[in-house]
Fold:
Amino acid sequence: MITDDTPKVLTAKNDRMFKSIAHGNNGKDILESILSTVFEEEVEILEFIPVELPLDTEDERKKTLDVLVRVGEKIINIEINAQGFSDITKIRNLAFICKLFSKHVSKGQEIDVKTKFLQINFIFDYKKSKRLVTKSYLTNEDGIYTENLGIWNIFVENVEELCYTNPEAMEKFRYILMLDKTPEELKNFFPNDNIIQKFRGEVVRLNSDAAFIREISEEDEKMIISKQEGSAEKTVDVIKNLLIKHMSIEDIADVVNLSTDEVKNIIKENNLNKTGE
Structure:
C-alpha cells in the first residue's frame, strides 16, 4: 500500500494559525490590512486586548484575538475568528461576543454606548450562503434594536469565486484571498506586496515550528473525538425515539446504519427498554 507521508501544510484557514500570525505588534500591519479590506476603509489597531473573562482557561485565552480599532470616527472592539460554519459555531460565536459585551457593561459603572462590539468570522468550507458577507445585529419587530453588538461573517469561498476571473476584485480582496494559500502559492501571489510576503514568511515559520504543529494536531484530534462523541449521543437519541414509536430492532438498525447486534448493545448500555425509557 502506498501512503503519502508528506507533512500537511497549514494555511491561515486554521484558526490558531490565523491568530498566531495576526496577533501582537508583529502582526499588526497584516491584521490592519485584512480589516481595512473588510471595512473598505482604513483601519487602525489601537490595542490588542488581553482576554481575562471569568472561568476561561489559559488554553481558551490563547485562541482569542480581541482588538480595539479605529474605523473612521468609530471605535470598535473586534473579536476575530477563522473557522468553518455550523450550528455549534454559531452558538459559540454568539455566546462569546455576548460575554465580551457584558464584561464592559458592569453594574455601578457608566454604560459605554460609544464603543461598538463586533465579531468578524472568516468562514471556510461553507457553500450554503451565496453572499460575500452577512451582517447580523440584535433586532425586534421594528428592525435593528442596537448596532452596538454585531456579528459579520465573511464567506471566503464566495470571495474566491468572485475573484477567479476578475483581476480588479482579486486586487481588492487579496488580503482575504491570501488566508487559505500555501507558502508556495503565496510566492507568486502579488509578489511585490510587502504585507502578503510578510504573511507568507509567518506561514512558513509556523509550519516549521514542530511544537506549534504538534499542539494544533492534538487539538484536531480532540475535536474529532468530540464530534464522534456527539454523533454517538445523537445515535442514542434516535434509537430512543424510534423505540418509543415501537419500531423493530431490524428497522432501527436500517435507520441508524448499524447492525442489529450494535443496536441491541446500545440499548443495553444505555438502559433503554422498548418504550425508550
User: Anything to note?
Assistant: The first helix runs from residue 15 to 22. The radius of gyration is 23 Å. Residues 1-5, 53-61 have pLDDT under 50 and may be disordered. DSSP finds twelve helices and six strands in the chain.
